[in-house]
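note to self: dont lose this again. the chain is below, predicted strucutre after it. 326 aa total, dont forget to put it in the shared folder this time
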Amino acid sequence: MNNIAFGQYVPGNSWIYRLDPRTKIILTILLIVVLFLIPNLLTMAIAMGVFLAIFLSTRISIIKVIRGLKPVLFLLLFTIFLQILYTKDTGDNPIALYTFNMQFGLYHLLIIIGIILFYFFTKKYIPLKIIYLLIAVASSFSVMWLLRFDNLVWSDFQFEIYKSGIEKAAFIFLRIVIMIGITSLLTLSTMSTDINNGLEAVLAPLKIIKVPVGVFAMLISLTLRFIPTLLEESKKIMNAQASRGVDFQEGSLKDKVNQIISLLIPMFVISFKRAEDLSNAMEARGYIIGAKRTKLDELKLRWRDYLSYAISFILLGLVIWSRFYV
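---
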């Protein structure tokens, strides 16, 4: 549970906590748009520096965001790996930074199978399984790169690494990290009720075309609120199943299917029970779908909100300028 940053609110009193929730939602969308407009690695590196400065000023633990990267770490590293290997320099005479001369044959296949078997038999003893998997994959490629045989060789091929591939991989890495950091700042510094009120205010113009903005905002708010709750419940169920001898890390395919079923059934039961309790609580407090509601605290923009808008639009203007002149 501690590895999941998304959906968790961390109490604090820095400037970001005092921003209007409407401001945080709009700026989150605006900054993500800025990220996708950034044209090159240099500008993205500058954006990373700006984001780090902003993040440190919020006094929120950076460990929360780093742990939030764990669910996408494998996909992130796999994307970087593909970019490095398959991005070629464009031009009349592209020069590779390094060339891997690879060889694949029967002996390589047998050694790789041995590495895979060793990985599956030993991974339950390794705490950092993702890093261990990356080491196993790197070892398999090293076998084809370092070991040379004279017979029973099926193929000789090359992997070339170009400067543009490394730059594109770093560009994508920084973009994903900053994007996750920006969205994490929203959920870490804003309570679910404030997100609900902010979304309803931001989407208020859609009421003109009869869109049920209040219901939509409430659904999103409840979803964000119950993500960490359901993750905590799943952790409790897994611990209870583990105490009864269920091992979610090992076993055949049939065993894993049974283990997943033993987890999903209680999760569905708990989800429906919590949904029923929430429904009863909302009805007891007079909540009616589609009815006009008043709020105890009215949202009001202050000077820090206008300053945040000004800085964000300046950043947007600088990025648009850099696309044409840098």
